[in-house]
Amino acid sequence: MLTLRLASGKLGPRRGSDLNELGIIEDGAVLCLGGKIVSVGTTKDALRDPWIRKHRKQLTEIDCAGKVVIPGFVDSHTHPVFVSPRLVDFEKHIEGASYEQIADAGGGIRSSLEGVRNAKTAALTERILIAFKDMAAHGTTTVEAKSGYGLTIESELKSLEAIRAAAHRWPGTVVPTLLGAHVVPIEFQGCSQKYVEIVCNEMIPRAARRNLAQFVDVFCDKGAFTPEETGQIFAAAMEHRLSVRAHMGQLSETALAPFLRYKPASFDHMDHVNSEDVQHLAKLDTVATLVPGANYFLGLKTYSDARRFIEAGVPVALATDYNPGTSPTISMPMAMSLACTQMKMSPAEVIAAATINGAWALRMADRKGSIEPGKDADLAVFEVEDYREIPYWFGANHCQITVLNGVIAAHD
Ligand code: NIG
Ligand code: FE
């Protein structure tokens, strides 16, 4: 059992060599009650425990002998509210078009808007729920879910409502994010400031008032929103007591320092980052969330420089970036495999990045990301003998059971 407990008890997201510490208990056992983890130790101790002996008949036992038990994955970056895959873009990529060329030719994010704008909430909910269930089948128990394919007030709120409705029907934990600033919709081309004002003065206040989002995200890059616009949107989020995160450095470098006063929970992608910003981040709890699925799917030769972040002491998380344009995968083990082979992270580091640091990226490390008493009963059981097999067997799913807030889901 990989508890992800840190022996030093050090607080804060995992950095540097702490990412390699998995808190392994051989022949471990975990007792969960009422959706919470109550005790963690060896099977031998559990079987000797007087309370467990007395109540054993009332407990549901899962025999994990010969398997690996880990904290459920925390997928801290996903875009599940879309209607159709983007298959024409897929073919164009294969023929050599870049992400920006496809967007300029009318593909990309903008081509997903019509489907979401025309969809009923219930139809979106069903699609999101399918993704959540599929995620759970691959070991994910907590998901951050962004809107961002509607880009009108109504369709962004509808997307967040669909996320909420799907969350109510799924036993895992869902963290909703408003990504009204995903791209400037075509109606506002040439007057992006008008759209930014709608995001700041309409979308954010309404989402906050109805408690539909915990975070506000911005795609800050060329072809999307400028640093100035991003600052305006962050300020509006702060005014409405929503935390912020951003897509940063995916296509080009943006100086991060001006945004640090908004205490972003996470900067995501981070393919292009300057050295000064790396030094800044090493001193903060803002997580660098790496999403190698996007680089893989776009056929890029380069990936975010995970080693540079880890060596500098920047906390890194891993996420799928599940979306129809750059990363159509719900699989955390796939993202982890890519992180090992393409970004040279160790199997231990990718497990920490996919669990406890994902929890930090969502500001939920008090409840998620490790197997420790008092935390939520979120577990994944893998039918492998060694945890390194989780990123090793790429493209296959070896997750057998997931426990989501104490609810057992078997995936045979
Ligand atoms: O994380 N970069 C912005 N957002 C997504 C892509 C969205 C899309 O292409 O549909 C990303 O890669
Ligand atoms: Fe994304």
Annotate the secondary structure layout.
Layout (H helix, E strand, L loop, with lengths): L27 E6 L2 E7 H6 L1 H6 L12 E4 L1 E3 L11 H8 L4 H6 L8 H6 L2 H17 L2 E7 L6 H16 L4 E9 L10 H18 L5 E6 L6 H13 L3 E6 L17 E4 L5 H8 L4 E4 L1 H6 L8 H7 L3 E3 L13 H12 L3 H8 L1 H6 L17 E4 L6 H4 L6 E6 L2 E4 L2
Parallel strand pairs: 4-5, 5-6, 6-7, 7-8, 8-9, 9-10, 10-11
Antiparallel strand pairs: 1-2, 3-12, 12-13, 13-14
Helix pairs in contact: 6-7, 7-8, 8-9, 13-14
The structure holds N-(iminomethyl)-L-glutamic acid and fe (iii) ion.
Fe (iii) ion binds next to loops.
Structural notes for this entry:
The protein is 36% helix and 18% strand. The chain is α/β, with parallel strands linked by helices and 412 residues long. It has an 8-stranded parallel β-sheet with strand order 4-5-6-7-8-9-10-11. The chain has a 4-stranded antiparallel β-sheet with strand order 3-12-13-14, with no helix packed on it. A hairpin with a 2-residue loop joins strand 13 (399-404) and strand 14 (407-410). The longest helix is centred in the middle third of the chain and has 18 residues, at 192-209. Fe (iii) ion (FE) binds next to loops. Fe (iii) ion binds at residues 77, 79, 247, 321, 323.
Salient structural properties:
single chain, 412 residues, alpha/beta, eight-stranded parallel sheet, 16 helices, 36% helix, binds N-(iminomethyl)-L-glutamic acid, binds fe (iii) ion
